[in-house]
User: Fold this.
Amino acid sequence: MTTILITNDDGINSPGLEALRTALQPLGETIVIAPDRDNSAVSHSLTMHRPLKVHKRGPHTFTVDGTPTDCVAIGLKKILESPPDLLVSGINAGANLGDDISYSGTVSAAIEATMYGIPSIAISVGGKHPLDYRAAMKVAACMAQKVLSNALPEQTLLNINVPSGEDFKKLLVTRQGRRLWQNAIQETLDPWGTKRYWIGGGTPLADPEQDTDVHVFAQGNVSVTPIQLDLTNHAGIRYLKDTWHLENKN
Assistant:
């Protein structure tokens, strides 16, 4: 039987997690291993300064008192008896577009599984609250089936962003764009007059490049972005050699 590992960064009680499990159950056996609380924006962090606790919440359902990456690593090495056929991380409450990918625990969980050789998808829904997960559920099931049937390129995962709602305009393959935020750090004073800072919120700046995930999603479409593990700027290698002459022979 096909086995699908499900995780997220919003935590075990997230409505997006339950929506994802419901969407994927017709495709095979679903196993949930998720953080026991919200771990948004923890990126690819591992918990290394304390031991981690695993709690069985029900049939094929586990929580870890750690990060999404912890969940994947412990799940693959200590909980599951054999590797899953697919990992799907989500459905995240909020889009993970452009530069958001670097901060996302949702995407990082899929990256971790890809590092272990598991085909992986990260899926998020964005829009006005309360979020409607119906379109994202359809896309999750469709794309999971495609990955199970056709596989993915080596060391590649999919980052998928779906508009909130029952349906969407188009599903388009995109590249990662830029999504910078204005006024994302708020300065306040505590009761003793000491400055304190909140990170979060702000206004995202639009990416004008039409083939990017940021632009496509803003137009009401689903963006499907293939992401690779290799972060090397291969053009930069030639630049450093030819312009900086870093490898000049004596």
Observations:
- The mean pLDDT is 95.
- The chain has one domain: 3-179+207-242.
